[in-house]
Design goal:
The chain has 299 residues and is α+β, with helices and mostly antiparallel strands. It is built from 13 helices and six strands. Helix 1 packs antiparallel against helix 2, helix 8 crosses helix 9 and helix 11 runs antiparallel to helix 12. It is globular. The chain starts with 8 loop residues before the first helix and ends with a helix.
């Protein structure tokens, strides 16, 4: 959609709410590429509506986006069923202002996005719209084609499910920074004890190679197993490995490069200053947006 010179009311409303619509679609789908497709579909439908007949453009646009996301979830379900190895959300480079919004940063975190994967499509939509964007039950009901009373019940059920799986404690920025620096130092020096020092006993490592890049075919559970697995992987690296801290999904993460080329993104779940979850995305299809963004920034 070319919006550079368009000033009509429909375009202005869409552009004004585009970031919100993208975030809604992304949090429902876990895929930035699919979220962009949903936005295109939303625009096509919105462009056929007379904005003058719409009382609340934001609610109307969110309704279209939600319905299109729910439709696309069916396609994604089939795709995930045939996926090779663990599936992780597509990592999304985010700006500092997202990290400063604590609730939004938590909802976009890799850890919580994986929890959202365990909800039904309607539960996920209701949770995202209510808990993340504080939409009213009437507006949510219109978006998911349920009654407001049913939406209240769904919201309560989804909130309970998510709360039971949230991190017990939320790391402060200082704790996250210290843990990440220690982890980065251990990776770059190949220090297995340094890794053990920052891994919680119950830590889980998930690797997403999509059948294209080498990754653990199943979750690796336990600090010693994770440390051994990572140390073995580092020994096999036949190139110069570098890491840099970046912000993924509103939270600190590590960008891995081999001989300067992007190799993967690792996001984290931190509790009590130690890592309880490591999420390593190596599937090249899920790294194209990050590669493009980092190439532009370097240019």
């Amino acid at each position: 959609m070319d919006t550079d010179h368009a000033t009509d009311p429909a375009t202005e409303a869409f552009v004004a709410h585009r970031n919100l619509l993208f975030t809604v679609a992304y949090e429902m789908l876990g895929s930035a590429a699919d979220a962009e497709d949903v936005l295109q579909e939303t625009w096509l439908r919105w462009s056929q509506v007379d904005p003058g007949q719409v009382e609340d453009a934001r609610a109307y646009l969110v309704r279209i986006t939600t319905r299109q996301s729910l439709n696309r979830l069916r396609t994604l379900k089939r795709r995930k069923e045939s996926y090779v190895g663990p599936w992780l959300p597509e990592p999304l480079l985010t700006t500092p202002d997202v990290a400063e919004n604590v609730e939004l940063a938590e909802s976009m975190s890799m850890a919580l996005m994986l929890v959202l994967e365990t909800l039904s499509p309607t539960e996920r939509a209701v949770f995202v719209l209510r808990e993340v964007f504080d939409m009213g039950y009437d507006d949510i009901a219109a978006a998911v084609d349920k009654t407001p009373a049913a939406v209240r019940q769904i919201a309560h059920r989804a909130r309970g499910h998510v709360d039971a799986r949230r991190p017990r404690t939320t790391a402060t920025p200082a704790q996250a920074k210290a843990a990440l620096e220690s982890f980065q130092r251990a990776i770059e020096t190949g220090d297995p004890q340094g890794l053990l020092d920052v891994l919680a006993p119950e830590v889980v490592l998930l690797g997403d190679g999509g059948g294209v890049k080498r990754a653990a075919p199943r979750p690796v559970v336990g600090a010693e197993k994770v440390a051994r697995f990572m140390a073995a992987g580092l020994r096999k690296v036949g190139a110069t490995l570098t890491t840099e801290v970046t912000t993924i999904n509103g939270n600190p993460a590590l960008l891995f490069r081999l001989d300067g080329e992007i190799e993967g993104i690792m996001a984290f779940r931190i509790e009590d200053g130690r890592f309880t979850g490591l999420y390593f995305v190596r599937n090249p299809e899920k790294l194209t947006r990050i590669e493009s963004a980092t190439t532009l920034s370097l240019g």
